[in-house]
Amino acid sequence: MREQRVILKTPRLTFVMWEEGDAVLVQRLHSTMATTRYLSGNVPWSLDKAEQRLRGWFEEQARDGTSKYKLLAEDGSFVGRAGISKFRNEQFELGYSLLEEAWGKGLATEAASALADWFFERQFASGFIAFTHPENIASQRVLRKIGMRERAPILIDGVLDTAFELTAEMRPAKL
Description:
By secondary structure, the protein is an alpha+beta fold. About 30% of the residues lie in helices and about 30% in strands. The protein has five helices and eight strands, in the order ββαααβββαβαββ. It has helices spanning about 25-30, 35, 45-65, 105-120, 135-145, and strands at about 5-10, 15, 70-75, 80-85, 90-100, 125-130, 150-155, 160-165. It has a five-stranded antiparallel sheet, sandwiched between helices. A three-stranded antiparallel sheet has the order 6-8-7, with helices on one face. The longest helix has 18 residues, at about 45-65. The chain is globular and about 40 Å long. The relative contact order is 0.14.
């Protein structure tokens, strides 16, 4: 495996910048109804859609210094994506998605918590938001675990999503 640009490391995850050709991984991640049921459009992604998102992540990284990153497990295998990027070119927004086989292992919480620390250490902004489909209870649990607080819902593609926010002052103290 060739050297990749490491953004952030946790005990079990490595966040790296995407590479050209990674659209196949993005498409694989979002290739099932289980992994897309709570996303806009609510259908598995085509390779074309994955390529569009990948190009968008490259643009976000160049413009804002942050984006959604490729997540690798300890053994170097691809397990998903996670990062903080601008939502509607306004507020920063935390987002993550894992392959089904990675669910239920605490990886989303580990990724979200590490991203929050990273974001505030680098002082990108005073806070960020996140939102979930109202039925995505597992993701809401992750956001609450990292100290996010619920705020007014947000309308996205005709769905009133549950919205959260986190500021540096709200961030739980490290143990």
